[in-house]
Amino acid sequence: SAFAQRACVVATTPAEAAERLRAAESPWKAAHAVAPRQAGVVFMFPGQGSHYAGMGRGLYESEAVFRAAVDECLQALGGEAGAALREALFADDPAGLQPTAVAQPALFVLGYALAQQWRSLGVEPVALIGHSVGEFVAAALAGVFSAADAMRLVARRGALMQALPAGAMLSVGLPAEAVAARLPAGLAIAAHNAPASCVVSGPIAAIAALRTELEAQGAVTRPLQTSHAFHSPMMDPVVAAFEAELRDGGVVLRAPSLPIVSTLTGQRLEAAQATDPSYWARHLRETVRFSPALHELQRSFDGAVLLEVGPRQTLATLARQHRAKDQPPPVALASLADAPDKETAALRLAAGRLWALGATVDTARLAPRTRARRLRLPTYPFERKLFWVDARPAAATPAPGTDFASPPPGPRPAPVAVPTVPSPEPAMSVSPAPGHGARRPQLVTRLRGLVEDLAGVELDAGASFVEQGLDSLQLTQFALQVKRAFKVNLSFRQLMESLRTLDALAQHLDEQLPAEALAAAVPAAAPP
To answer: What's the N-to-C CA distance of the chain in angstroms?
Structure first.
């Protein structure tokens, strides 16, 4: 039977399942209520910088559909090129995926194969969106070009970019408009990722100088794992060459069969754009407008679950930052974690979350039972029988003169002696010192205020920071603010692992802070 309240847990043994079911904060457990109206699932494909060593290896070993799709892509490259990409993709050396000529086709392979794996589980997207090179995966799934042509185009795109001089990219925790106003010549906004997050691209020395300047002004920045300055003037020399590849390389372009929201225009991709080679050439040079595209996606597919189909959860975190005023953040899920040995479990957890949210998922294909047996257990079956409880007959009318206050006959119980406590002197009125637990609501309020000042959103105290849209830059800045406000040691890793919610962080501070320290950090409550 399909119920509105659903929960799932991912485990490999009965003991592990029991432990994770009992744990209040297990990352391998999820529970949701099915929404009254299902708006479908949107596939999001990440771009360069999200890769990790050995990505896809765990799924390649365990999932036949995923393996077949990977082999299809590698065969499209040909013998030596396909073999070299396979070796770099599944190797443990993270440096193997750093070159642009390798990273871009590797991301295409993983995104395309993972999308085919999701479709084999019955998850069909209602729309697609891709960040930079991720839009090529979306276009291949929508039939704009074949998977083989897309694989060759992405490999050519990466090779052209690889031949350019090296550059750098910097993620900045500020609105794109504010950063663009202070950029010197040669630097460009490469990506408008969220309302308060963007990426700057350009020469290495200029990026280093900008980072020093921004951090001196209190902004949080983070260099990206890229070898070149994508989506900047440094890409101009290869735009014409890539357009010629599309025009003269025998690539057939078609109108998309599924809705694609373009991260080049921030609007839905039209047939005329999808079939124009100049669109895909401009795609590698101009700004990635992911934030405007996501707003368009929310308008067109309100309530849709956003599923990141690729490594890590970069886009899912960015998507959660696009919350409307007084509304919860969008529901965004990640397909994978950040290590090959976690891929199979991460995929099953994502599928369980989709199912718990009400999406159509063929759960039987996730863990086929080769020795399944049906057991008749002594539990109550749902027999669909209706039982009506008749009303009680009316009580007889009491006889006149009946005393309803009189107790029934019988021995009375002995009175219980209650010790008396002397009243305090009326002139003395002393408030008890706050103990552990009594001040946690104040701490939660203070912490919520710090987050609101930082990110402009009010968090749910019981949900994790990442699930509510805070990214690594914002969590780093939040950790610094908490350390300044409460004079305690707090790391970014703690906020990602053991102190993942406002409630958990407030409890930690309550246990660490002496009673007198709270008065300076938390203002006293106003009298009613």
So the answer is: 51
- For the four alpha carbons of 147, 152, 155 and 161, in that order, the dihedral sign comes to negative
- Going from the C-alpha of 186 to that of each of 165, 200, 235, 493, the distances in angstroms are 14, 11, 11, 35
Tokens read off for 201? 């691209």
pLDDT in tens, 290-317: 999 999 999 999 889 999 999 999 999 9
Long-range CB pairs of 271-280 (<8 Å, 24+ gap) are 274/139, 274/144, 275/144, 277/243, 277/246, 277/247, 277/253, 278/243, 280/153, 280/242, 280/243, 280/246
H or E segment to which residue 130 belongs: strand 125-130
Q: What single-letter DSSP state applies at residue 528?
A: -
Distance in angstroms (rounded) separating the CA atoms of residues 181 and 202:
16
φ, ψ for residue 20 (rounded to 5)? -75, -30
Beta-carbon contacts of residue 50 (< 8 Å; ≥ 6 apart): 107, 310, 311, 312, 314
Confirm if 502 and 461 have CB atoms less than 8 A apart.
yes
Helix then strand count (H, E) for the chain reads 20, 11
500, 464 contact by CB (below 8 A): yes
What is the per-residue pLDDT across 226-265, written as a single tens digit (0 to 9) for each?
889 999 999 999 999 999 999 998 899 999 999 999 999 9
Give, to the nearest 10 degrees, the angle between helix 147-162 and helix 134-141: 160
pLDDT at 373: 72
For 59, other C-beta atoms within 10 Å of its C-beta total 24
Q: Mind giving me the DSSP string for 143-204?
A: TSS-HHHHHHHHHHHHHHHHTSPP-EEEEESS-HHHHHTTPPTT-EEEEEEETTEEEEEE-H
Query: How much is the pTM?
Result: 0.79
Integer Rg of the chain from CA: 29
Look up tokens 């040079």; give the residue.
285
What are residue 444's phi and psi, to 5 degrees? -60, -40
Token pair listed for 246: 């599309």
Element (H, E) at 223: strand 221-223
Three-state secondary-structure class, residue 334: strand
Crossing angle of helices 472-486 and 502-512, in 10° steps, is 30
